[in-house]
Amino acid sequence: MHVISTNTRKLTITDYLIAALLVLITLVCIAPIWHTIAISLSEKSAVEGGKVLFLPVDFTWSAYLKILDDGKFFRAFAVSLERVALGAGIQFILTVLMAYPLSMSSREFAGRNVYMWIIVFTMLFGGGLIPWYLVIKSLGMIKSLGMINSIWALVIPGAVPVFNVILVMNFMRNLPKELKEAAYIDGSGPWYLLLRIYIPLAVPALATVTLFSIVSHWNDFFQGLILMSKPENYPLQTYIQQLAVKINLSETDSEKLAELAKLSNKSLNAAKIFVTIIPVLIVYPFLQRYFIHGITLGSVKE
After folding, report:
1. Which one-letter DSSP state was computed for residue 173?
2. Under 8 Å between Cβ of 131 and 204
3. Lowest CB count within 10 Å: 36, 61, 82, 194, which one?
4. Handedness of CA 112, 114, 117, 123 (dihedral sign)
5. Angle between helices 162-173 and 112-124 (to 10 degrees)
């Protein structure tokens, strides 16, 4: 008769301390967001008096109703979604196509070092805001491009993020060389090697730079402010940055005046912040797992 013993390690004081520390860090990270939500749902007098901490005081939806009351909000939201889809997609394609050849050695790609110096130079030196704007404006004068007041003005200027290229390039350079040699022996070409080996193995790095691209396009308001002269072309962040409480007494009835009287600028700003972080909070959990799992481990056995 065999007795199977299961030895389970008992929790020590150190384990409890680590768990308590992690809980504390989690609360510290959540507290600002929770405080922002509480402010956005509180009345003006409570917010201005500093009475709101983590629970709404005199609960009200006034701030959110003010944001959603205008159809321009949904137009700006659609512009931001279009910008994120186009911008992240174009950045993904160009980043991969640029990082892949640069991950090769100088023997395989003769001009590698020259291109590396060029892209590093762009990280250290820039022409400045005014030349940047004049270049985009000059492209906008070409009817076939039409950059100004178009979605392409928000997508094309930052289509090749050098930092993302270097990140993916270094990841690809660290992939086992035996995989590439085996693929060449089997008769694979560069495109097959990229699509069937490098991209699947570089998923963690590609997921990371994709998240960077999504967050960058979603959070940016400055380009929309400069390159869009028509309010209907504003992305969401630019629209919210321009949003202000304007009371027109001639066109506002008593009910709307009473509602606006309950609205604080702090409540409105808090509502803006919370609305803008919702999409990122939705996307992040789907990409977060790639940050902690390396799928290249054990891919080559010698």
Report:
1. H
2. no
3. 61
4. negative
5. 140
Question: Long-range contacts made by residues 262-266, C-beta under 8 angstroms, separation at least 24?
Answer: 262/43, 262/44, 262/60, 262/62, 263/44, 263/62, 263/63, 263/66, 264/42, 264/43, 264/44, 264/47, 264/48, 264/63, 266/39, 266/47, 266/48
* 258-292 per-position pLDDT tens digit: 555 555 567 777 787 788 888 888 877 777 666 65
Q: Which H helix or E strand runs over 276? A: helix 265-288
**CB within 8 A of 175, min separation 6: which ones?**
103, 198, 201, 202, 296
pLDDT at 171 over 50: yes
In the chain, count H helices and then E strands. Answer: 16, 0
Give this prediction's pTM: 0.74
Give the DSSP letter of residue 198. I
Q: Which of 171, 173, 174, 196 is nearest to 183 (CA)?
A: 196
Which residues, 6 or more positions from 294, have their beta carbon under 8 angstroms from its beta carbon? 204
